[in-house]
Specification:
This protein has 163 residues and is of the alpha/beta class. The chain has helices at residues 15-29, 54-62, 90-99, 103-106, 133-162; strands at 3-9, 36-42, 84-87, 109-111. Helices cover 42% and strands 13% of the residues. Its EC number is 3.1.3.48.
Length: 163
């Protein structure tokens, strides 16, 4: 059975496509791409159909990640088929939990940096959109740090299903 993860930020052109790309690479490196499906979306539809922000694309490609992406808006109807909805900041977390049709669906929503033991108390991945390339590089570092531990948590869930 496929385990489905969706990363969500505001417009689905900066943080969530970056997280999707990094996590997809981690999943492939672990040989789990047949078991884990990875996607992303935005809480709003302003950029629907657009590619990722050029700065996101540049930072991903400079670091060896795939940058192919088409922005889309998160649809609450997806909740039943998703196993985990990963919010990139606390405003997304609140918005997604409000959209969740059931308490069980709301429990699927988690902050990405909650998977990074070194994150401390600030679990938001700051929006790099209005800044320069350094913000996108910092975003990538946060995403990479959390993705390793997120994969471990998903792997644990998969093993629990198999038992």
């Amino acid at each position: 059975m496929t385990y489905r993860v969706c990363f969500v930020c505001t417009g689905n052109i900066c943080r969530s496509p970056m997280a999707e790309s990094v996590f997809r690479a981690r999943v492939a490196e672990a040989g789990l791409d047949e078991l884990i499906e990875v996607g992303s979306a935005g809480t709003g539809g302003w950029h629907e159909g657009d590619g990722a922000d050029p700065r996101t694309v540049a930072v991903l490609e400079e670091n060896g990640y795939d940058s192919a992406h088409t922005a889309r808006q998160f649809d609450p109807a997806w909740f039943p088929r998703l196993d985990l909805v990963i919010a990139l900041d606390s405003s997304h977390l609140k918005a997604l939990r409000r959209l969740a049709p059931t308490e069980r669906d709301a429990d699927k929503v988690r902050l990405l940096r909650s998977y990074d033991p070194a994150a401390g108390d600030d679990l938001d991945v700051p929006d790099p959109y209005y800044g320069d390339t350094h913000g996108f590089e910092a975003c990538l570092e946060m995403v990479e740090a959390a993705s390793t531990h997120l994969l471990a948590a998903v792997r644990e869930q998969l093993e629990g299903r198999a038992a």
